[in-house]
Amino acid sequence: MRIAFRVHGAVQGVGYRRFAAREAQALDLAGWVRNEADGSVAGEAEGPEAALAAFRARLAQGPAFAAVGRLDWGALDVRSSLPHPFEIYR
């Protein structure tokens, strides 16, 4: 299963991308994460449904200094491969 996500709130400058990558790698997910110009953090992840559900819960909480306001999450039907292990894009 493959998903796209976007996290809104105070999520830049607080270690959110590093947190997301660490959590995804712990769940053995493929994918990437990056900061967006609008202040959100976006990415894609791929893996088993149970691992993605756990990842979603962790993203919704975020690291200690983040304040997640909203998490957008949706399934993708894309056939290209994602980076594995999970990567941080600059």
TrEMBL record:
Enzyme class: hydrolase
Active site: R17, N35
Catalytic activity of the protein: an acyl phosphate + H2O = a carboxylate + phosphate + H(+)
Pfam families attached to this UniProt entry: Acylphosphatase
Keywords: Hydrolase
The keyword Hydrolase is assigned to this record: yes
Top-level taxonomic group: Bacteria
Keyword Hydrolase: yes
Annotated Acylphosphatase-like domain residues: 2-90
Family membership: Belongs to the acylphosphatase family.
Protein's recorded name: acylphosphatase
Organism expressing this protein natively: Geothrix oryzae
Lineage: Bacteria, Pseudomonadati, Acidobacteriota, Holophagae, Holophagales
